[in-house]
Amino acid sequence: MNDIKYELIIYWSTKDESFIVEVPELAGCKADGDSYEEAIANARLIINDWIETALRLGREIPKPKGKLMYA
Questions:
Q1: Model pTM score
Q2: How far apart are the first and last CA of the chain?
Q3: How far apart, in whole angstroms, are the C-alpha atoms of residue 38 and residue 41?
Q4: What ranges do the domains of the chain cover?
Q5: Which phi and psi angles does 51 have, rounded to 5°?
């Protein structure tokens, strides 16, 4: 498993009662977990799955941009 080089947005969701991790550079790539650590571990798995699926479908994989700016 590769190191995470994509920006992660991590927050607590009261509605879902779990930590949510979004990977804004990979469309639709999200994970969750009961703890902060579990959410990040699940994000690692989902990022790898996202990349493997994109490769299998012949889609472009975005290069990590580093820190993104949001308004």
A1: 0.84
A2: 32
A3: 5
A4: 9-56
A5: -65, -45
DSSP structure class, residue 2: P
CA 7-31-37 angle, to 5 degrees, is 80
Alpha helices by DSSP H, listed for 1-71, are 36-56
The alpha carbon of 8 is separated from its chain's Cα centroid by a whole number of angstroms, namely 6
Side chain identity at 62, as an amino acid letter? P
pLDDT of 2 > 70? The answer is no
**Count of CA atoms in the C-beta half-sphere (13 A) of 54:** 15
How many other β-carbons are positioned within 10 Å of the β-carbon of residue 47?
22
Tokens 């949510």 belong to residue: 20
51 within 8 A of 1, measured Cβ to Cβ: no
Q: What is the mean pLDDT of residues 8-24?
A: 96
Q: What share of the chain is helix, strand, coil (3-state, %, to 5)?
A: 30, 20, 50
